[in-house]
Design a protein that fits this description.
alpha+beta, 1013 residues, 33 strands, 30 helices, nine-stranded antiparallel β-sheet, six-stranded antiparallel β-sheet, single chain
Length: 1013
């Protein structure tokens, strides 16, 4: 290494050129990054959605769901799968093994394609999609102000086209499920009877009345002419005037039926805000487009649209994450800069030498720019996780540089020539610095290979890559750039003086006196340390434990469940009341709701964090109380940050008989109700609807010459809608359907009396052709790995998932279960248990790997063991930090704890290596301990303070994004503060004990050896 440094000192221009290239390339990489919320990656979650017709759930299960599930059981690469089947739909969720997502998706697609011919003919939609982290959703708008038909027409034509023309926009999706898009021809039964015709006859003539087709080609030299007959109908009036042949002659359709234009009318859901109906659109961005730039362009187009509307309608922002991302990214970027400035100030305060400080100040931006180059080369973008990783690394970047520079500076203080001091100082610390830097990197190896939840792995990989790149860059800067910059900046330094002349630094003197005191009372010191550790462990139950990364904390999604039989109008009334109650809260910015029969979905947008008057927990309790106080609301559920996210508490009851499972689920609800802080308890069991099954009487049908197809078509016509054709206007296709009045047949007794035309031309009541069987049909059927389940869910208020989880585990055994039934923990609670288990495994693996590195560094087992014994003291700081701040210990805090292990051992390695070096030069044990510690006090305090102050802006958690970063910073800062004392006091004491025992043993062996001679 000394030859390399000497070469570079002679060829400084090489380093200056490298510096220029790093600055140029790093700045270029920085300005080429796209901005994201979180790292974008495909996840191994595959969704299969199949729909069409109105087949009852049990028939969909047998003919669709079970067929697919049977194939999935034998498919390699699947961890788990579950399904939910209802009337006319089947949804299957699949979790693939690590790295198998794309393969499982393709094989699942092949299975569905192969089975599709076996599905009922009414199935018309089949999709297989893979979930990703950092999805394509950009911004959602709600259009208000005009009638719904006008709004839908505008959105599906001009507005959709204008927004989709914006660079970076993939598509605009108009949410029209809650609105009709059809023209309904409703038969008048008494008029059909008067004209002695049937609905089937009318439908047949209508289907042939609206058509357009090419009939031939006129061929000419040089050109051809297509001949087309256009008999298509252009408007509703033309449909009304269609002449229908009847036994009594031709008659206009409007004489036999009512033709209604239902386009834009409310179907089965009402979406409103501030008393206005709205239509929602979702803007999706194209892959590779920049989030902030694309939304800015979209917002500009929307402003133009609103200006042109002249107040007739308006597009309002309903949901977007860019404003949150911009604030969070800005805040994190600011934290990185402030952290870097604080780190440099620490150096100046300790060294009181601007030239020395400038050496470190130049390596800090160089290391960050090298990290940007690595991130760009690996395909990463700037997101919250990358910036959190950089904030975490700011204090660590200068660690190696401080140690190298302090070693050079220490020799210069003793009067050594500058060039010799650079070579000798770098050589003395190269081995311990490499070992300490390796401990910081090695912690990520178990972290990235552990079996954490799938959504967490991309975040862990991003943190691991970013921090590893930063540490490698800082190591390169420490051994290549620091020596050269030292030669440049310290060449004319006149502030140097010998250490004896400087006098003792206050901090150094304080730690020296403390060390001498503890060395005189070693046993008492160990007893005090042990008592502190035990005391800290007793505080562990006071830590709030949770999981999930609610990155966007400006959004709340709530669902109100109403009693069975609640009408759409009653649900709307409750929703209006809920909106009014929520708008009274000063922290609420906007409220949008969609009311359906028996449910209300609320989208609540909050003001920015700086404008809020209530803490998150207090605010959630207020919202929960107001929503539960609304008349007619049976259940309430809320999620913070993500739409559709599962509840924190989920327990699954599995068994064959739904009624038995329902009884068990009721007991589970009672058990959960006895746990403080568990609220909004509910299960997803839905009582079945009344079902009547018609079984054809084959003998009667044969006698009356009625075949199955004829019976099916006539009943379908009487009870449902018969598609006829489409009407095209302004590029929008509208369905034309025929039906009977909704009130015509509403009871099974009326169904029995409907008349069916026979093959002989006569008509007979339906009950003469079929047998009626009455039963109940389930609304939805849920499976987990093929087993039928009921899920009991709940939210938490005033408690944390760790505390609630412990009580649930204690009480779960008290619920009596019949044979063949079981209760399993699911959702966030299961995820938390798995995360904590994997965290412990990773921590043990990290400690083991670090121990191996230290054994290789010191060449013995005892000295690394000394450092290992000091690690529990860092845990004391972590526990105290989370108890005092009452922040939630989750995934990010766990990452901080694991990183803390690598950080705290690095300085202990440097300390013990210094003591060993002094002993190798002839110093006695205690003198080497005192002097070695004295030599390392300044660099240890400097490196710890730079790390702490580098993360301090994150730990303060005062702005958007704090929920993600604060727990990580809290763990690291608290652990570092407490372990600083440990490194400079407890480690020397342990070293004194272990090495003292070793010296006595060696002395005895030497004495025995002399005696034997």
């Amino acid at each position: 290494m000394d030859k390399v440094i000497l070469f570079l000192l002679k060829r400084k221009v090489i380093l200056y050129l490298c510096t220029f290239l790093i600055v140029l390339t790093g700045i270029g990489a920085l300005f080429s990054f796209h901005v994201e919320l979180v790292p974008k990656t495909n996840l191994p979650w595959i969704e299969v959605n199949i729909s069409g017709g109105a087949l009852p759930p049990e028939e969909m299960v047998e003919k669709v769901t079970k067929k697919i599930e049977q194939e999935l059981k034998s498919l390699a690469g699947i961890k788990n799968f579950s399904s939910k089947t209802g009337t006319g739909f089947s949804g299957i969720s699949i979790l693939a093994e690590d790295g198998e997502g794309e393969k499982v998706k393709q094989e699942t697609q092949n299975i569905v394609n192969r089975l599709r011919n076996e599905f009922p003919k009414v199935v018309d939609t089949v999709t297989v999609t893979q979930t990703n982290l950092g999805d394509e959703d950009l911004i959602d708008y709600a259009m208000v102000g005009a009638d719904t038909q006008t709004m839908l027409t505008l959105l599906k034509t001009t507005i959709k086209d204008r927004i989709e023309s914006v660079p970076g926009v993939k598509e605009v999706v108009v949410s029209e499920d809650g609105f009709e898009n059809k023209v309904a021809i409703t038969f008048r039964p008494e008029r059909l009877t008067a004209y002695r015709t049937t609905a089937a006859d009318v439908v047949g003539q209508l289907q042939g009345a609206n058509w357009k087709k090419a009939v031939g080609i006129l061929e000419n030299p040089g050109f051809d002419t297509v001949v087309m007959i256009d008999n298509s109908l252009k408007n509703i009036e033309e449909f009304k005037a269609i002449l229908i042949k009847t036994p009594k002659g031709k008659v206009a359709l409007e004489q036999l039926a009512t033709v209604s234009d239902l386009r834009g009318s409310v179907k089965d859901a009402i979406s409103m805000t501030e008393g206005n109906l709205f239509v929602q659109i979702s803007v999706k961005r194209a892959a590779g487009s920049d989030l902030i730039t694309t939304q800015k362009k979209v917002e500009e187009v929307v402003r133009q649209i609103n200006d042109e509307a002249g107040g007739n309608y308006e597009l309002r922002v309903m949901f977007e994450s860019v404003s949150f991302i911009k604030k969070a990214i800005t805040n994190l970027s600011r934290d990185v800069v402030i952290g870097g400035i604080l780190a440099i100030l620490v150096l100046w305060v300790f060294l009181r030498n601007w030239r020395v400080t400038m050496v470190i100040a130049t390596t800090l931006p160089l290391s960050i720019l090298m990290t940007f180059i690595a991130l760009k080369a690996a395909g990463y973008n700037i997101d919250m996780v990358v910036l959190i990783s950089l904030s975490l690394s700011i204090g660590l970047i200068v660690d190696a540089a401080i140690v190298v520079l302090e070693s050079i500076y220490h020799l210069r203080e003793k009067g050594m020539q500058l060039k010799q001091a650079i070579v000798q100082g770098s050589k003395e610390v190269i081995a311990p610095v490499f070992a300490s830097q390796l401990t910081l990197i090695i912690v990520f190896l178990p972290l990235v290979v552990a079996d954490f939840e799938q959504w967490l792995k991309p975040i862990l990989h991003t943190i691991a890559f970013t921090v590893t790149s930063t540490i490698l860059a800082s190591t390169i800067a420490a051994f290549l750039f620091v020596p050269i910059f030292s030669e440049r900046f310290l060449q004319h330094d006149k502030q140097l003086q010998s250490s004896s002349e400087k006098g003792k630094n206050g901090a150094v003197s304080l730690f020296q006196r403390l060390l001498l005191l503890t060395l005189r009372h070693r046993v008492l010191t160990l007893l005090v340390a042990f008592a502190v550790f035990v005391g800290a462990l007793s505080l562990f139950p006071l830590i709030k434990i949770g999981n999930g990364l609610n990155a966007n904390e400006n959004q709340i999604f709530a669902t109100l469940t109403m009693p069975d039989g609640t009408s759409l109008e009653q649900a709307r009334t409750a929703a209006v009341e809920a909106e009014k109650a929520l708008r009274e809260l000063s922290d609420v910015n906007q409220v949008f709701f969609t009311a359906k029969k028996e449910t209300v979905e609320l989208n609540i947008t909050l003001v920015t964090k700086s404008q809020r008057t209530q803490e998150k927990e207090e605010f959630m309790q207020e919202v929960n109380g107001r929503l539960n106080a609304i008349d007619g609301v049976e259940q309430t559920s809320m999620t913070f940050g993500f739409s559709g996210k599962s509840a924190p508490i989920e327990l699954q009851v599995a068994g064959e008989d739904l009624e038995v499972s329902r009884t068990i689920s009721t007991k589970v609800e009672e058990m959960l109700a006895s746990i403080p802080g568990v609220v909004n308890i509910r299960n997803d069991f839905e009582r079945g609807k009344e079902k009547v099954t018609l079984t054809p009487n084959q003998e009667a049908m044969s006698q009356l010459q009625v075949d199955s197809d004829s019976l099916d078509s006539q009943i379908s016509m009487l009870l449902g809608e018969q598609p006829l054709s489409t009407l095209s206007q302004n590029g929008i296709e509208t369905s034309i359907v025929a039906r009977f009045p909704e009130t015509w047949v509403t009871h099974p007794d009326q169904l029995q009396q409907i008349m069916i035309r026979t093959g002989t031309g006569s008509q007979v009541p339906l009950h003469e052709l079929v047998d009626f069987h009455f039963s109940k049909s389930p609304i939805t059927i849920k499976h987990e790995k093929g087993e039928q389940i009921i899920t009991v869910s709940a939210e938490l208020l005033g408690t944390d998932i760790g505390t609630a989880g412990r009580q649930i585990n204690d009480k779960l055994g008290t619920v009596e279960l019949p044979a063949g039934y079981k209760i399993e923990i699911a959702g966030d609670l299961k995820e938390q248990n798995n995360t904590l288990t994997q965290g412990i495994i990773v921590l043990v693996a990290v400690i083991s790997l670090i121990y191996v590195i230290m054994v290789a560094q010191f060449g013995r087992l005892s000295q690394p063991f000394i450092i290992m014994l000091s690690l529990p003291m860092a845990l004391v700081g972590v526990i105290l930090g989370f108890v005092v701040t009452q922040r939630t210990f989750g995934e990010m805090a766990m990452i901080g704890l694991i990183m803390l292990v690598g950080i705290v051992v690095s300085n202990a390695i440097l300390l013990i290596d210094r003591i060993n070096l002094l002993r190798s030069r002839g110093m006695e044990l205690e003198e080497a301990i005192v002097q070695g510690t004295r030599d390392r006090v300044r660099p240890v305090i400097m490196t710890k303070l730079t790390a702490i102050l580098g993360m301090l802006p994150m730990g303060l958690a005062v702005a958007e994004g704090a929920e993600l970063e604060a727990p990580l910073a809290t763990g690291v800062i608290a652990g570092l503060i407490f372990h600083t004392l440990v490194t400079l006091v407890l480690v020397p004491v342990l070293y004194s004990i272990f090495e003292g025992i070793r010296e006595k043993r060696l002395a005895r062996k030497k004495a025995h050896h002399i005696a034997d001679l």
